Amino acid sequence: MTRSEAARINARLNTFHPITIFTPSDAAADNSNAQNLTVKEIVARLPEDQFHVTMLCGGDPDPRLLRRTNTRMVKWTKHGNTLRLLRHCLFPPPDMYFFPRSGPLDRVFFDVRRHMGLRTALVTYIVLAMNKVTGGGLIGRSILEGDVVFANSRYVADTILQSFNVAAKPIYDGIDRRYYFAAGRPENAAPVVLYAGSFQARKRVEVLIEQAARFPALQFRLAGKGETERNCRELVQRLDCRNVVFLGHLSSQALGQEMRQADLFLFPSILEGNPQVLLQAAACGLPAIAMELYRPDYIVDGKTGILARSDEELSRGLERLAGNATLRRSFTEAAICHARKFDWDDIAAQWAQAFQEVVARRRLSVTSQMHRRAS
User: Fold this and answer.
1) Cys-Cys crosslink for 163: which of 40, 130, 232, 308, Cβ 3.0 to 4.6 Å?
2) Domain boundaries, position 92
3) 287 and 154 co-located in one domain
4) Mean pLDDT value across the chain
């Protein structure tokens, strides 16, 4: 179906009602989970006369969403969320269930949708490389049962095709320029190396601490929390790293400030999709060093940062950039320019078009079935 055909169908069908969307995403202002940030940015830009969205909310709502007349937020509580939220998926069923996760609500909805033949279109968005582990359970099911599947990078789309033989279209995340923007970068006497992300095994925060032990003249600042934090703190003590500071979880505003005050961003994770934090660093003019394994599109190797193929290359890249302020300034300018390509207004328009197309196909199919039964 071409875009013009979808637009004509939607123009005809929208005379009856706008597109209704349910997403199991959190509208809370302080929820900085990357997936929830993505949905908040999309919903904040959807035309109010064309889309009605229901989300959950586990705190004070994002004020942009609170002001929108077409966005309904269902309070998240300690108990009973699945049944309470399921009501909003079934009575009546929405036109679309967007960005399924892997919780009990998703499982129940998938089962009901299959057995009752709901007209609700399932729009799946995958943000992590797929393999035998990550593609199991409900994530794999959301790919196989989705009416359409999107990925947050070309690499993730490739892994979906390899693992499931399902074609996925890449749609990138954008940059929230309220918090992530470039400003005059200080020339720190001792270069500051920043990490931001969760503390879990695949992120390999321990690698940063090992680099801190190797380069005691550099300052390392680690933002985030998680299951490996205790081990990381113990490693800092064992290696006597006096150049490491644990910042804890930071708000988007505080993280943007940290990025503008740092000299380098080091991200040794080995299992990702297309990490938003790399784009945030680029928008702040922060050269980044990451692993080439998952081919992040937010870094242009050798121009905005360095993509390493091994831990040895990671260490050499750190040494090279830390010791060359002129090269860092060149990377800074290129990173800022590259980040401008990822504008949320343009990206949200892509999502709106995609939503219209999938719902148009679903509505047209339902209408055709009704006509066949009537005849």
Assistant:
1) 130
2) 3-174+343-374
3) no
4) 92
At residue 372, the pLDDT reads: 67
Q: With cut-offs at 50, 70 and 90, classify the pLDDT of residue 42.
A: very high
**HEC letters along the chain:** CCHHHHHHHHHHHCCCCCEEEEEEEECECCCCCHHHHHHHHHHCCCCCCCEEEEEEECCCECHHHHCCCCEEEEECCCCCHHHHHHHHHHCCCCCEEECCCCCHHHHHHHHHHHHHCCCCEEEEEECCCCCCCCCCHHHHHHHHHCCEEEECCHHHHHHHHHHHCCCCEECCCCECCCCCCCCCCCCCCCCEEEEECCCCHHHCHHHHHHHHHHCCCCEEEEECCCCCHHHHHHHHHHCCCCCEEEEECCCHHHHHHHHHHCCEEEECCCCCCCCHHHHHHHHCCCCEEEEHHHCCCCCCECCCEEEECCHHHHHHHHHHHHCCHHHHHHHHHHHHHHHCCCEHHHHHHHHHHHHHHHHHHHHHHHHHHHHHHHC
- Whether residue 37 lies inside any domain: the answer is yes
pLDDT in tens, 167-177: 999 999 999 99
Structural domains of the chain, count: 2
Q: Are residues 280 and 363 in the same domain?
A: no
For 2-11, how does the pLDDT look when each residue is reduced to its tens digit (9 = 90+)?
A: 655 555 555 5
- 267-300 tens-digit pLDDT: 999 999 999 999 999 999 999 999 999 999 999 9
User: Do 360 and 272 share a structural domain?
Assistant: no
